[in-house]
Structure formats: structure tokens, C-alpha cells
Design a protein that fits this description.
Blueprint: H1 3-20, E1 31-37, E2 44-51
Antiparallel strand pairs: 1-2
């Protein structure tokens, strides 16, 4: 397995773990589309709908913890 493929698989697993910690979307309530993109290759690692209330600001994480950052879609 190439190093790049392994790196992408680890990033996808991390993205799935993060989203797994959010409430499940019921398919009807207001939602937010969460898309995780590899910052190096700009490849989409996954996307999920989550309830809009799950996207509310949360307390700042501990130092050294990586955070997701919301960006507007340029299209």
C-alpha cells in the first residue's frame, strides 16, 4: 500500500470519527452539509448531513487538538 493511500485512509477514518460524534440527521429538519477535504490534495474525503443545531459553536478545544474549520463553497 502506498504511503499516500495510507495517509488518505487515516484522514477518512478521522473524518468519520468526528462526524460519528455528531447527532444523526432525521432527513427533515434543517441540516448542514459537512464536507471534509484533504488540505494537501484538495480531494474530498467524505460528506455528511448533520442537524443544524449540531453545527452550533462549541467551547474551544484543548491546546494541541486539531479543529475543523468551516469554509464557504466557492462554486
Amino acid at each position: 500500500m502506498s504511503g499516500e493511500r495510507e495517509r488518505l485512509q487515516l484522514l477518512q477514518a478521522t473524518a468519520q470519527e468526528i462526524v460519528a460524534g455528531l447527532p444523526a440527521w432525521d432527513g427533515e429538519s434543517p441540516s448542514v452539509l459537512v464536507t471534509v477535504i484533504d488540505p494537501v490534495t484538495r480531494q474530498r474525503l467524505g460528506h455528511w448531513f448533520v442537524p443544524a443545531t449540531a453545527a452550533a459553536p462549541r467551547p474551544r478545544p484543548e491546546p494541541g487538538v486539531r479543529r475543523l474549520r468551516a469554509v464557504r463553497d466557492a462554486s
